[in-house]
Amino acid sequence: MQPTTSLIYDGTFNGLLSCIFLSYEEKLEVVGINPTGMANEELFSESLEVITDKFKADRVWKAFKKIASSRGAKSIYFAYLSEAPGIELEILKYLQHTFQHKKSIDGDFASPHVLKIVQTAKKVSREKHRMEAFVRFQLTKDSIYFATIEPDFNVLPVIKHHFTSRYSDQEWIIYDLKRKFGLYYNLTTTNIINIDFAKNSGSSEENDYFFDSHEQDFQKLWKNYFEATTIKSRINIRLHHQHVPKRYWKYLIEKNPLHN
Amino acid sequence: MMFDRIKEKLEILADAAKYDVSCSSSGSKRSNKNKGLGNSDGMGICHSYTEDGRCVSLLKILLTNHCIFDCAYCVTRRSNDIKRAAFKVQEVVDLTINFYRRNYIEGLFLSSGIFKDADFTMERLIQVAKKLRLEENFNGYIHLKSIPGASDELMHEAGLYADRLSVNIEIPTVSGLKKLAPEKDHADFIKPMEKVKNEIIQYNSEKKLIKSTPKYAPAGQSTQMIVGATGESDREIMLSANHYYKNYNMKRVYYSGYVPIRNDPRLPSLGSQVPMLRENRLYQTDWLMRFYGFEVNELLNPQFPNLDVEVDPKLSWALRNPQHFPVDINRAEKETLLRIPGVGLKSVSKILNARKYRKLNYDHLKAIGVALNRARYFIICDSRGWETKDLGSAKIKSLILRNSVGKFRKDYSSQLSLF
Lengths: 260, 419
Prior knowledge:
The structure holds 2 protein chains of 2 kinds. By secondary structure, chain A is α/β, with parallel strands linked by helices. Chain A folds into 2 domains: 124 residues, no CATH class; 125 residues, no CATH class. Chain A contains 8 helices and 8 strands; from the N terminus they run βαββααααββαβββαα. In chain A, the strands form 2 sheets. In chain A, strands 4-5-6-7-8 form a 5-stranded mixed beta sheet, with helices on one face. In chain A, a hairpin with a 4-residue loop joins strand 6 and strand 7. In chain A, helix 3 crosses helix 5 and helix 4 crosses helix 5. By secondary structure, chain B is α/β, with parallel strands linked by helices. Chain B has 2 domains: 292 residues, TIM Barrel, CATH 3.20.20; 104 residues, no CATH class. In chain B, the strands form 4 sheets. Chain B has a 6-stranded parallel beta sheet. Chain B has a two-stranded antiparallel sheet with strand order 1-2. Chain B is globular and about 70 Å long. The N and C termini of chain B lie far apart (63 Å). The interface between A and B is large, with 56 and 58 residues.
């Protein structure tokens, strides 16, 4: 019997694709792919640390895209961003199926593997859309529109385009507190940044010195607007919670009790 | 900005605008040029939701709630004793820009009470949109109200800056309008609608020849009808909606359950319930007409003038037309699949894709997202034990009701116990 292998990668998409390349090159029987630090000690399989190789990753991705639809390629990338435990192995299987059949399996929604990828991608896509909706910028004294987020999935890479094309005449930062990196648009390009700061920054009360003198006024106007636009005789709290789950309230000036 | 003064105006003028249910910010592509502000890519975004569950996508306000008309159903009618306020053009521009930059909104929805006359009011609305587009280089979404009776020249100009234009027909029938808004003329509502429709057609045909033709109201027109203020049947409402979809190329017709705001012998009394279930059923019917290939006569006709409250209109149609069923999931055309209760647009698309790879059975359909509790009585698939017996419509209906929960069920539970 062929020994099984568990692969460890650096957590990047190219890293994952490098793992897939290696599995073909070395004809490995892969039973796990995990980011560094997340790997379980597999008792009966060999652990192998894979070095990310952009060239190999590109080869895998190009070969896949040649067969798969653009919808399928997007699903795979979004599923990867979910960071769900075990999703890497699902992605490997999906690519294996595609290469094996030499035709796209993207529409095979009755296959549990395809459905798993599609459903995971859907969750990420929903979170992406929510972040595009729920990010609330606050204007700093240096004229930077600043927001922090803690999304369930790693959506910064996929919301970059939306915010860059929308706010192209203002400097802005969106910072992911959970994953400790952010996007900074400097009026020309949007780049990844790392900032070291305390967790409570982002709320205006504690950072009066940090934000523009009228920032609070606009937040109050927004809260007033939000309340005035509610129709009291139609209150439907269940529906409200369904649309704006409580875990997102911390972003929303209009829902956050801290912003009174 | 005078924040205290603005705050007061905002409260009054947002409160007065909230009965307009249109919230859509989709359907318009306006890409960011020359490092301007904003970008509309055709997808709407709901930035928040009020406690009544409606989405907040646009800053929805009136320019003023001063009005020369006295329509019975309207909060801002002349005879109503309420606080009045008016925004200056620049104030609306500043609010919109500052909210948009903070990612609170997708754009502006601007309506107004009618002060002085129709043209004077319409001109002010256009001024706001023009300033946003030309001075602020704003590419976000702008929805302007077409003021009934506004001149053709102004409606032409409005479409050059707005993404969407709308006139609220409010009362679905001409006779109802006479009763509740005797000062208003039905023809005044139609005039701007007709003008905008023709302009859109003309601009679109020119666009095909000359690429640089400017955009004209790229997100089209919409309108709104109040439901339950006058005695119309569901059929009358949907025939009216169908008329506006077909003859004025409406993108949307909105249905707004009447919220009692005063005691008036012509209207439902204060404290009567907002007809939310009815509103919901009308929207379902609207969707069936626009996306599922149903004709209004199939769903509502002289024998069946009002929608069933207990079950959705598609299920109700299927129960009345058992001759079309069962449908074979693995063979039927798209149009036929769309008519199965419990199978939505997304499920249909998934079924069409998935059945190329294998024959689908109950488990597959369930995983894909089909509501089998309704669909199972109307389909054949690759599972044994599909419903072979001819149960009859009444039996199927009671089985479905027993095995499901409905959010409005409590409102008619007394009727339910009859089964």
